[in-house]
Amino acid sequence: MKFVSTRGRAPSLSFADTVLTGLASDGGLYVPESLPRFSRDEIAEMAGLDYRELAFRIMWPFVSEDLSEDEMRGIIDRAYANFRHKAIAPLVQTDHNEWVMELFQGPTLAFKDFALQFLGQLFDLLLKKRGEKVVVLGATSGDTGSAAIEGCRHCENIDIFILHPHNRVSEVQRKQMTTVLSDNVYNIALEGNFDDCQNMVKASFADQSFLPDGRRLVAVNSINWARIMAQIVYYFHAALSLGGPHRPVNFSVPTGNFGDIFAGYLARGMGLPINQLVIATNSNDILHRCISANDHSPKPLVHSLSPSMDIMVSSNFERLLFDLYDRNGEAVADLLRDRSASLKLDDGALDKARTLFSSERVGDERTVEVIREVFESTGYLLDPHTAIGLEAARCARKSRAEPMVCLATAHPAKFTEAVDKALPGTEVPLPHHMQDLLQREERMQVLQNDLSAVHDFISRELG
């Protein structure tokens, strides 16, 4: 299988080269030349498979030319060995035909573990086979960083640098990153917002001259295709658990960077019956405005109770645009020539998007109310991102007859500020393996929002 750039000017690559390249040379993102598609009968035969076997079945068509079956199964087994629940992604019912899929059972309590535990194992295998050592550079609005560090900390052939916006992630999120004292892990607290971090990563990939000879960057953010690929699996897992493919199962996804919900779009393209995907945003609502009003204009970023969604430039939206514009890379490049400018979709592209996607915006005040209401009615505690997803599902849902699954993206213990506003005095203990997290020693470097300062730091640490 070959992978092509969304901007049409970069060479097509194999799966392994795509994973180790990240951002395409023309600034685009890699996507498969064509999607594998399962028949209804083939999907039905997957019912009852455990999560690991399902992951192998879904991902194998993408990787079969670069990995052996034993290598792929080994990567999957190691990736999900440290998840705390045997179901890997358990479902919890919150109302009639309404479900929450808990994607926070991994080692860092966030959905990013599904992709990044897999990606770390994949990196390690590919780099050992090639005898290569690389530098992972990533930006995080909260959860990607800790999951990436956990996935890469034991990799002998990786040095990992993670940028997070200084004082704009929760204390638990920060500590999960900065208390990992491995020699190959470097945390940078950037005096800016997440978009500044993300822009810095993209600029670094475009010009890697600051790196020592023989080293290159690889991407750990959701611009890396392997992350999106791994997330497709849990859409199949949820649907098969709730009667798919014999009936459609719909999803609501709290999202800022569009990667998690794009995986649902791909699952549908691979044959999974999905009639509705709900884009759930907080006050940083560029995706909601785009779908509801064709207004994709950047606005000043707002600091919210759901910091992992405090994003105004949604990188993975480009992958959807590529399909909406009939895979015309030139058209996508023209649309995205100036990311600071307003973007409007043409009527055909907007109509195509609206056949599948709905959207809702949920502010902090309503987020807090939803956490309280759901807890009082069910005894189930939501984190603020999942509360936004559930409220968006309830507001935008088109069919009560079809199951609606909200993706629970993080454990509530990571966001005690929001929980305390909703339920004052409620203690949310961290899982046993993190009981002492807040007392652990930290190590990070606070840097100005300046590309040369970041490059100097990276170059110096790599010697």
TrEMBL record:
Pathway: Amino-acid biosynthesis; L-threonine biosynthesis; L-threonine from L-aspartate: step 5/5. One of its GO terms (biological process) is threonine biosynthetic process. Signal peptide: none annotated. Residues 99-332 form the Tryptophan synthase beta chain-like PALP domain. The modification N6-(pyridoxal phosphate)lysine is found at K112. Its EC number is 4.2.3.1. Its cofactor is pyridoxal 5'-phosphate. One of its GO terms (molecular function) is threonine synthase activity. It catalyses: O-phospho-L-homoserine + H2O = L-threonine + phosphate. The keyword Lyase applies. The keyword Flavoprotein does not apply. Keywords: Amino-acid biosynthesis, Lyase, Pyridoxal phosphate, Threonine biosynthesis. It comes from the Bacteria. Residues 2-80 form the Threonine synthase N-terminal domain. It holds the Pfam family Thr_synth_N. Belongs to the threonine synthase family. NCBIfam families: thrC. This is Threonine synthase.
